[in-house]
Amino acid sequence: MHLLPFLPLLSLTLAAHTVQTWPPQPPTSLLPAAESAELLRLHRKLVEIPSISSSEYEVAQWLASYLRSKALKVELQEVSPKRYNVLAYPSKRDTNILVTSHIDTVPPYWPYYYNETTHVIGGRGSVDAKGSVAPQILAVLALEEKMFNDIGLLFVVGEETGGDGMRAFSEWEKRPTGYDIVIFGEPTAGKLVCGHKGILGLGLRVKGKAAHSGYPWLGVSANDVLVEALGTLAGLRGKLPRSEKYGETTINFGRIEGGVASNVVAETAYAGIGLRLAGGTPDEVRSTITDALGDIKKSVEEQGGELDIEWREGYGPVDIDCDIEGFETTTVNYGTDVPNLKGDHRRFLYGPGTIFVAHSDHEALKRRELEQAVLDFRRLIVTAGRMDKFREKNLEL
Prior knowledge:
By secondary structure, this protein is an alpha+beta fold. The protein has two domains: 28-196 and 319-392, Zn peptidases (Aminopeptidase, 3-Layer(aba) Sandwich), CATH 3.40.630; 198-311, Alpha-Beta Plaits (2-Layer Sandwich), CATH 3.30.70. Helices cover 30% and strands 24% of the residues. It is built from ten helices and 18 strands. It has helices at residues 7-17, 33-48, 57-69, 130-145, 164-171, 222-234, 282-292, 294-302, 367-384, 387-392, and strands at residues 73-80, 83-89, 97-102, 113-114, 120-122, 151-156, 181-185, 192-196, 198-207, 211-212, 250-258, 264-265, 268-277, 306-311, 318-319, 329-332, 346-350, 364-366. A six-stranded mixed sheet has the order 1-2-6-3-7-17. A four-stranded antiparallel sheet has the order 11-13-9-14. It has a three-stranded antiparallel sheet with strand order 4-5-18. The chain is elongated.
């Protein structure tokens, strides 16, 4: 009997009985196989659950269940209806170290994917910031297994839309006390961040008078006023507070709208503007901008219109601790929850993946970056924490 004609059928039969494992193992891994697989499964599940800001209910509930399955005590703090921060700890509630990140993402949702050839992992939140959440959990669980009982975990909502989750935790009457060290997770390309720029937002709202575009002198163009105001603000670039550490304060005209049709003198116009502060204080910048727009505001009011400046809450540059040997350091231009957590504590900011792909349709990082983050978070916790606790127990990492 010749087997050759049956080889294709035999191959299909064997394939049907082959157990497919996930995730596939790369040629080299920085973690033991079981820990690496757990990291990838956790990260995948977190990314697969859509959690755009204000819609974080499902991810918070799932994450709480997962942490309870790891024998951690879990509390849910309601920030607003169906929106919860997740606090977890081993036994004692007041821990010396708090490890934290955010579980909300920017829109739109992009599905999870894993490239088995390149080991690139993508999807909304794969970097910002579920790429920090999963390694943080694995790092803390490994230390808990070694009887280090002084680490808490906090995962908050709303970081991408102003930080209402962290602010709610900071103001929580039942908030644990005593944190000496807080480690924040954000995409920092695997570097320790020594600080980031401040943020100040404002809106320019103009009210004019509508008229036929053939007789523009009968109206007051809100668009004309807004264009003049934006030109004045553009002229402030390079003249606002700067610093050696953070460079120039930048101005972004993020949203502009006005009028209803090309043959109508615009009655209303609006611009949303964001500044990244490299120096000075929000009050100083507010004063500079208010003074710069003073003549325009006076002129439009004399014509029967209005120019209102709507200020949003802001903060100045944020200096962050980065004195841990063995880490590269950097500064970043994006905002974080670091200034939203009040208290007297040392603050560290670290995470895998780069901000350059965050908030994009190609948000992704490599599996090796996730694995390295587990080791780095572990090393950061140990080095920044009370080393005597580890020495007393003769613990090795």
